[in-house]
Amino acid sequence: MYHIFLSFVVALCLGTHWAVAATTSGEIANSLNELAQQGFAIKQLVFEINSTADAGPIPVSGSLGAQMTAHNGIQDIYTEMDTMGAVILTDVKYITNTPIITGQTEQQDVYEGYSNFVQSLLELMDAFSSSATQLKAINSTTKDKVPSEIRILQSAVDAYFYNIIGLFPAESSYNAQATNQKAQVDTHCFQAVWAFDLGSSNGSQATASARRSSSLHSRRMKRAFF
Question: Which parts of the sequence are annotated with region: Disordered (predicted)?
Fold first, then answer.
């Protein structure tokens, strides 16, 4: 159902241009840091499921909900990733009309939030990579479902980062560093997808397809906000 909703949102963006007020640098930094916390929380859930698989209820705190079994925990991972994707798309909408950030302090605040979110995504993708074998053992559908969720999230993140990077002056060190970090996230996402393809006879083909699909999807989303 979420995927249908996401497709509808993307299609709406392609056909229309939202007129929204510009977002302040402080709001952008806060949103980035909140997304980072969500990313770290999902990573922790992945590790908890990996380490306590089939060992009974898994204690989960905060926004991730109450106790759950390993199987239900996997479903929660999907839900949290979908939620993150929806938040990111909303944030992209609200930064569309934000002008380039010229103040050094404001640039630093946004970049620190950006770096924090990047770090959470790198750790989340690494968690998926290292837990792929165990997750597939718990539920065989994760072999296809987790890569699908990663690709959807990556497409949203790609559009988001594209817009965030555009807020830094083109010749600034923040712009160059943020661009490099975005490339790192792309690499870690591909590695996580590959970890779930590993052992499959069509793994290489699936990973190549994932790269093409993600690239096309992200380009469409970027165009939606200009």
Answer: 202-226
How far apart CA 179 and CA 196 sit, in angstroms, is: 27
Instruction: Give the Cβ contact number of residue 128 at 10 Å.
Output: 27
DSSP E strands: which ranges in 4-90? none
Per-residue pLDDT of the chain (226 residues), as tens digits, is 555 545 444 444 444 344 445 789 999 999 999 999 999 999 999 999 988 754 444 444 433 443 345 667 899 999 999 999 999 999 999 998 899 999 999 999 999 999 999 999 999 999 999 999 999 988 899 999 999 999 999 999 999 999 999 999 999 999 999 999 999 999 999 999 999 988 554 444 444 444 454 444 444 444 444 4
Structure tokens, 33: 């840091």
Q: Which stretches of 16-103 are DSSP H helices?
A: 25-51, 70-95
Three-state DSSP class for 225?
coil
Q: Which of 188, 190, 226 is nearest to 207 (CA)?
A: 190
Dihedral, CA of residue 191, residue 193, residue 153 and residue 98, to nearest 10:
30
CA distance readout (Å), 70 to 81, 114, 123, 125? 17, 31, 20, 19
Residues 160, 92: contact at Cβ < 8 Å? yes
